[in-house]
Amino acid sequence: MRLATELVEVKVLGVTIDPTNNQTVVILKEIDSDRVLPIWVGPFEAGAIAMAIEKIKPPRPIAYDLISDIMQVFDLNVVKVIIESLKDGVFYAQIVISQNDREEYLDCRPSDSIAIAVRLLAPIYVKRDLFESSSVSFVRKEIDDEEEETKKFKDFIKNLKPSDFKWH
């Protein structure tokens, strides 16, 4: 059994673009502090998370919307998401699903679990030792470049079309 004190509750502060490499990043902020944990994710996943945060509904459901709908129809609940570890630069997570008295921990990419959690309003946690070793203090810089990058990313998200995505 996992102890609650081993976990740090976080919320999605936002999605941004890392100006050093133009990669998308989800920023998780500890609920009770100014510490943040950046997690680099793919652009599709970042877009899906940002759309859920901004409450933007695509004309057709994307995979995360479908998963959320299926879970609701079949009375499955996301108990929580746990970002567990970092190995060779890759974060690992579990999504905890329950139905009735049954609870299952499923291996999941952090980006996928976050995209589902924000849709279903499920709590997100990071293991305390991982958070303490990988988080940084959040200092909001009020500079034009940062605001411009945020505006560009929001414009990118708002203008997404289904044809922009590659389906495998």
UniProtKB/TrEMBL annotation:
Residues 7-138 form the BFN domain. InterPro entries: BFN_sf (IPR036104), Bi_nuclease_dom (IPR003729). Signal peptide: none annotated. It comes from the Bacteria. GO terms for molecular function: nuclease activity. Pfam families: BFN_dom. Gene3D superfamilies: Bifunctional nuclease domain (3.10.690.10). This is Bifunctional nuclease family protein. It comes from Thermodesulfobium narugense.
